[in-house]
Fold each of these.
Amino acid sequence: MGGDAPGHGAGDPAPPRERVAPRPYQRPSDDLESEDDEAQPAYAPRPAEAPRPAYAPRPAARAAGPEDARLQDLVAYMARGLVDHPDDVEVDVLAPGEDAAFELRVHPDDLGHVIGKQGRTARSLRLALGAAAGLIGRRASLEIAD
């Protein structure tokens, strides 16, 4: 064969590899540490922390703002384009604010249209909502009610 090394054609077996014995484990060298540091541990222990409460208090619920309303309208607009009964589409704001949560309710016959095959349409709705929320510096989640 043209550009191959001599003796290494398609039918020739590959030459045996040279076996290398595994090296024994060696501890890392202490070249970087001076003799004065031998008594101290290699890491600094953490200071004692105050015990945390069993739960983190949630901030007080606030009213839905204009950004929440815009995201709510976006979800409703996308869902109305997917379903056969667009008048039955409802979107509620479960948790307004920086980390908003929305709930989408549709006619029972349209639930399959909103969820899609293997949940792909629902995933796309959530992705579009998250992208729109990211443009205004927020996060958003979408729940689809049965």
Note: The mean pLDDT is 79.
Amino acid sequence: LFRERRRELGLTVRQVAERAGYNARNISKGMRKYSGLEEPECCFPRATVRDKFARALDITPEQVTAALRADVVKLDTPVEPYVVIRYMPAVYGSRRAPAHWDRQRAMKVLQRYADLSGRSCCLVLSRIRGIYFWPDAEPRESYGLPGSPLLDGMDTVLSAGTDGGLQKALHRHQREQARKDRTEAL
């Protein structure tokens, strides 16, 4: 959205930063923040940054909302299912879900695993959504996936969706949206 609009207006990144209020003293900072919005993997940017540059490019709040919704749809497309197991705080491992498992079978097996092992686990369904299983508790589908920097080097098949930055951005977006919804309800 941002790149397309900047190109429509025939502006450079520097000109966008200037329109957003950055000056000679902090233009590099503005250019860096704006460039982040044009990155292909930029999903759910901070509202303050996003809104400042949206105003500079005459992008309406409705267009921003539509782009954020499109990000959710894009990130919530199904992936090859896999299971993330929590061994201890901040230490996770993963395994591909067997190809013959349908959703019902996976849920039954993973709930039994959680109950018998005492470990929580998550059946990952998309880059941002999974079903969590805890010992002696009902499964719960949730946006947000487990992840750990300690996964690197382990037997792991994690997709880019468990990227901590993406998960933090998604949760920040959800909080901002909930705040906005509460404000509009008043």
Note: DSSP finds seven helices and five strands in the chain.
Amino acid sequence: MTRLARLSPEAQDRLAKEIERQRRIRAAAADPFAFGRIYCPQYFPTKSPDFHREMMDPVLSGESVVYAAPRNHAKSTLFSFLYPLWSAVFQRKRFIVLLSSSGTQAELFADALKKEIEQNERIREDFGPLCGEEYGLQ
């Protein structure tokens, strides 16, 4: 009899869930686009086009870049939502500055990040509380 077979059905279920959680975390840690599909599928329902990765790769390697692209090419979604959220969750950046065409727009981006960190069930399930009193901050 294998060790796994000796576990109760409940323990087997917990183990399977933990293995799946660790798989999600590993995939998401390695690739912000996988993070988006796993934790924010409402924003990233399909694989991102190649030009998104082409824009993201220099940022991931630490380069400072400025991009100009037509409207509706997901610049804000990538660099004011996905990258900051991924960086915060995996503690890759201690301070993140959001710049936009107006203070109001930057606040909207910050509010969207805050909402995901506080209310995204899958993020909370896999990473626990990341802010607020539960995290030790007030």
Note: The chain is about 60% helix and 0% strand.
